[in-house]
Amino acid sequence: MRRLELDPNEGGVGFQIAPMIDVVFVIMLFFMVMAGEVKVEKELNCQLPGQMETSAKAEFVEEQVIQINAVGDVSLNEEPYGKADDKLLQNLRGALMRIKANCEAAKTPCQITIASEPKTKHGRVMDVADACSETGITSLSFNVTEEE
Question: Structural domain boundaries of the chain?
Answer without folding.
Answer: 73-144
